């Protein structure tokens, strides 16, 4: 029922992803093995002590030899785990590098297409036309600025002053003389406040 319309879904999982997953699974199995050996080492050490207390020195020596061999296995396991982790990191970093290279490749192709559309000659032509248009506009501005006489500029400044004064709208100055002294206002009578009596 997964393929209702007969379309196969492309998996996003790459071969590199599968390899990384397998390496991580192997690393996890080695770590479990490492834990198991560590637990055995502790048990065998305790058992060797007990055998020595019971006077069974030969069995204790054999057990310690076995323990020593397992310690060597533990060291080898640690090296293998380290190698697996390094390999996983190398693969993951290489995947990142591949994506960067792919991005650079796409960017380079895009730049090449843009360069094909716009050549250096075309850019120089556009810049030249733009400079010509700017120079032409500057000449027009100079002609317009030069056609004003001093009377025109005086009229412009006078109109500017009129507009500025209209915007201010200051109040008119009174024509009557101001009184010399302001009459004193009658004092407001203070009503006595009722005294508060404490309730008992």
What report would you give on this structure?
There is one protein chain. 73% of the residues lie in helices and 0% in strands. It has 200 residues and is mainly α. 2% of the residues are buried.
Concise overview:
By secondary structure, the protein is mainly α. About 75% of the residues lie in helices and about 0% in strands.
- Principal-axis shape equals elongated
- How big is the Rg? 49 Å
| Mean pLDDT over the full residue set | 81
Backbone structural class: mainly alpha
Largest sheet: none
Helix content: over 70%
How many E strands?
0
Strand percentage lies at under 5%
How far apart the termini lie comes to: 92 Å
Features:
200 residues; mainly alpha; 73% helix; elongated
How do the helices and strands line up, and which of them pair or pack?
Blueprint: H1 15-53, H2 57-117, H3 120-146, H4 150-168
């Amino acid at each position: 029922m997964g393929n209702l319309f007969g379309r196969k879904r492309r998996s996003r999982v790459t071969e590199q992803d599968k390899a990384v997953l397998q390496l991580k699974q192997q690393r996890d199995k080695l770590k479990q093995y490492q834990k198991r050996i560590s637990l055995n080492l502790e048990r065998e050490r305790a058992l060797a002590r007990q055998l020595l207390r019971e006077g069974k020195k030969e069995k204790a020596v054999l057990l310690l030899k076995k323990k020593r061999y397992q310690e060597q296995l533990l060291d080898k396991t640690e090296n293998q785990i380290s190698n697996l982790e390094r390999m996983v990191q190398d693969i993951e970093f290489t995947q990142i590098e591949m994506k960067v290279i792919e991005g650079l490749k796409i960017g380079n192709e895009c730049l090449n297409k843009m360069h094909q559309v716009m050549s250096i000659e075309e850019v120089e032509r556009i810049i030249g036309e733009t400079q010509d248009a700017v120079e032409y506009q500057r000449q027009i501005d100079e002609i317009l600025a030069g056609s004003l006489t001093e009377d025109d500029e005086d009229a412009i400044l006078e109109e500017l002053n009129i507009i500025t004064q209209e915007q201010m709208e200051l109040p008119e100055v009174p024509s009557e003389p101001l009184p010399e002294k302001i009459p004193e206002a009658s004092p407001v009578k203070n009503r006595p406040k009722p005294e508060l009596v404490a309730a008992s």
